[in-house]
TrEMBL record:
It comes from Pipra filicauda (Wire-tailed manakin). InterPro entries: H-rev107_PLA/AT (IPR051496), LRAT_dom (IPR007053). Residues 13-129 form the LRAT domain. This is Phospholipase A and acyltransferase 1. GO terms for molecular function: N-acyltransferase activity; phospholipase A1 activity; phospholipase A2 activity. The chain crosses the membrane at residues 132-154. One of its GO terms (cellular component) is cytoplasm.
Length: 163
């Protein structure tokens, strides 16, 4: 059973805790959210990020919060309010509704579900999840370069000893 002890208000950001990532939606009111889903109508919204990675497209849908959440925990998480000023609620909802049933570009690092809903709430796309992923990839890349250089140096030294 999905869990949250909070009652969202229109314009709130909803963070849905999936196993490997967080899915984000924007609360519209009356139990509905706006979120990006796979373009494939047959794919469940629970697979949005996985399916959309490969298609690079997503569809914006208005769905019941309980359908999008499934059995996952969720919470209202307007964490960017500390650093960004939310737009007026009427403007957030108007902007959100203009996207219903449209297809949008999807990129897990640059235009993901979190970027989309923060753009609606603040007028600016933000995603800590993407920043963390990019930082991890850079760290892995740097580690790979360093280990390649070290292996090269060690091989060079061992060759010197052989001769």
């Amino acid at each position: 059973m999905a869990y949250s002890k909070q009652h969202p208000e229109p314009g709130d950001l909803i963070e849905i805790k999936r196993q490997l990532y967080q899915h984000w939606a924007l609360y519209l009111g009356d139990g509905y959210v706006l979120n990006v889903t796979p373009v494939d109508e047959g794919a469940p919204s629970l697979l949005v990020s996985t399916a959309s990675i490969f298609t690079r497209k997503a569809k914006v849908k208005k769905q019941l919060l309980k359908e999008v959440v499934g059995n996952n925990d969720w919470e209202v998480n307007n964490k960017y309010d500390r650093s960004h000023t939310p737009l007026p609620v009427k403007e957030i909802i108007k902007r959100a509704e203009s996207y219903i049933d449209t297809e949008v570009t999807y990129d897990v690092l640059g235009k993901n579900c979190e970027h989309f809903v923060t753009m609606l709430r603040y007028g600016e796309s933000v995603s800590d999840q993407a920043k963390i992923a990019i930082g991890s990839m850079l760290a892995v890349g740097a580690a790979a370069v360093v280990s390649t250089v070290l292996v090269g140096l060690l091989r060079g030294r061992s060759r010197e000893k052989e001769y």
